[in-house]
Write a structure and sequence with these properties.
This protein is an all-alpha fold. The chain has a domain at about 5-260 and about 405-475. The chain is about 65% helix and about 0% strand. It is built from 19 helices and two strands. It has a two-stranded parallel ribbon.
């Protein structure tokens, strides 16, 4: 019986479209068997829970063809070592913390890893060629449009008297685990503003930036991607997320530097030639400079309204620890420092996936015990919170040791190699995909310094799409 590509079957594409459309909802309220402490609850997991088994069944019945990606080997090695490290952690068997035992945390952590893998594997199998890429990105941008609309509603609620905050809060609690942010920061469909900023930096803006840079359009409406990029940038500013802003700016700058050299040369040539022409051309280019400078100054003044940003440069801290406390990063730094102690104790294998929290409270730095209110709240005997490292790299070092960390890096660089291999095709769509992939890869690299979850689709989705495209491209060349 002849096998067909996944894209020839309509039902998997429908489920995939629903998954991409619902990506912005990160903390869906209606998940069974999850406690209130589980905040990462992607709504997109529902359609994926139907999609993956369906793909496997169709493949076993030879109705579709599921392609193999070389990145699966690197990923498989990482997963096998994580299982080994977690088994070794059971021998350590740390003292239970606030009713949490090792096996419970390990099973929970492995389940979150499986959820992340579901996003990656689905993305690989559902993207084989330009048609699949366009289909995926269109539905991703459709989800972004819904997110922009809800963010605009939040902005109207925060900054005008047209809607009551209590009423909009009830609307949001109908699907989200969290009410509107009290500091009037835009969070969209995500749990908090930083999560929205992370989505924008690692999923939405990479495709929009790549579309503008490569002039590759997904629809006949040529102005759509630039307009969505402008709205996404405004949303990013409205989150007031320092990590999200720095991640996006750094990723955009490096991507533009590495893959936008032709654009840089053409822009420079256009700029220089203009000053040799008519007075109108000269004035126009001066106006462009003024507009860019004005946008930068305006963004700075807008962010400077929040003390969260002002403290970055308005501080009298005498040490690094004092500076971290002043900028509200003291708790995050303390958790990462304490979790790193687990790596120092078990440097090769770590303490097992999900177990780093058992080592955080005993190893908190002295400065955090008296100067960080969040730490004091967590150390309250009545608190039931289980601490996290707040840094994926530190978490991997602590929980899987040096070997697990190196295998994770190997997988990431293998995915990067797949992304760059698309540049060899010399086609506009392939260059668009590679540019978006490199932007997302850089953003994810920076983003992982500020989060420690393996569940979030942010770190899996775009990489999976690009790996899928590269795998089928390589097979065709062979």
């Amino acid at each position: 019986m002849k096998q067909f590509p996944v894209s020839s079957n309509k039902f998997p594409r429908i489920l995939w479209a629903v998954a991409m459309l619902t990506l912005p909802v990160t903390s869906f309220r209606w998940f069974p068997f999850l406690g209130e402490g589980t905040l990462v609850r992607p709504l997109a997991l529902y359609p994926l829970a139907l999609l993956l088994p369906l793909l496997i069944i169709l493949a076993l019945r030879q109705k579709i063809n599921l392609h193999w990606a070389g990145a699966f080997v690197a990923l498989g090695a990482l997963i096998l070592f994580i299982v080994f490290a977690t088994s070794f952690g059971a021998l350590i068997d740390p003292i239970p913390l606030r009713g949490q035992e090792y096996f419970g945390r390990a099973i929970r952590a492995l389940a979150t890893l499986l959820i992340g893998l579901a996003f990656f594997i689905s993305a690989v199998w559902m993207n084989r060629d330009e048609s699949d890429l366009r289909f995926s990105v269109k539905w991703i941008l459709a989800g972004l449009c819904l997110d922009i609309a809800w963010s605009a509603l939040q902005a109207v609620t925060f900054y005008t008297g047209l809607l009551e905050k209590e009423m909009v809060t009830h609307w949001q609690l109908a699907f989200s685990m969290r009410e509107l942010v009290r500091t009037n920061r835009i969070s969209g469909f995500a749990y908090e503003p930083a999560w929205l900023a992370g989505q924008l930096a690692t999923i939405f803006i990479p495709f929009l930036f790549a579309s503008v840079l490569t002039k590759y359009r997904l629809t006949r409406v040529k102005w759509l991607e630039p307009v969505l990029l402008a709205f996404s940038s405004l949303m990013l500013l409205a989150t007031y997320s320092r990590g999200g802003l720095l991640t996006t700016v750094a990723a955009a700058g490096l991507t533009f530097l590495f893959l936008g050299r032709d654009v840089i040369r053409s822009m420079w040539a256009w700029f220089i030639v203009g000053f040799r022409g008519r007075i109108f051309d000269k004035l126009f280019r001066v106006g462009v400079i003024v507009a860019i400078f004005g946008a930068l100054v305006g963004s700075f003044l807008f962010l400077n309204q929040k003390g969260l940003f002002r403290r970055l440069w308005q501080t009298d801290a005498a040490s690094l620890s004092e500076y971290m406390v002043d900028i509200n990063a003291g708790a995050r730094g303390a958790y990462s420092t304490a979790a790193f102690a687990a790596f120092e104790e078990y440097p090769l294998t770590g303490v097992g996936l999900g177990a780093s929290g058992f080592y955080i409270y005993p190893n908190l730095p002295d400065w955090s015990l008296t100067s960080v209110p969040e730490i004091a709240k967590q150390l309250n005997p009545e608190s039931r919170l289980y601490p996290n490292p707040k840094n994926l790299y530190v978490r991997l070092l602590a929980e899987t040791g040096l070997f697990g960390f190196v295998l994770f890096l190997a997988f990431q660089f293998y995915a990067l190699g797949d992304m760059l291999s698309l540049l060899l095709r010399k086609e506009v769509w392939a260059r668009f995909a590679a540019t978006a992939g490199v932007f997302a890869w850089l953003a994810i690299t920076f983003y992982n310094f500020t989060q420690d979850s393996l569940t979030t689709p942010n770190i899996w989705l775009v990489s999976g799409i690009l790996v899928g495209l590269s795998a089928t491209s390589s097979n065709k060349e062979v």
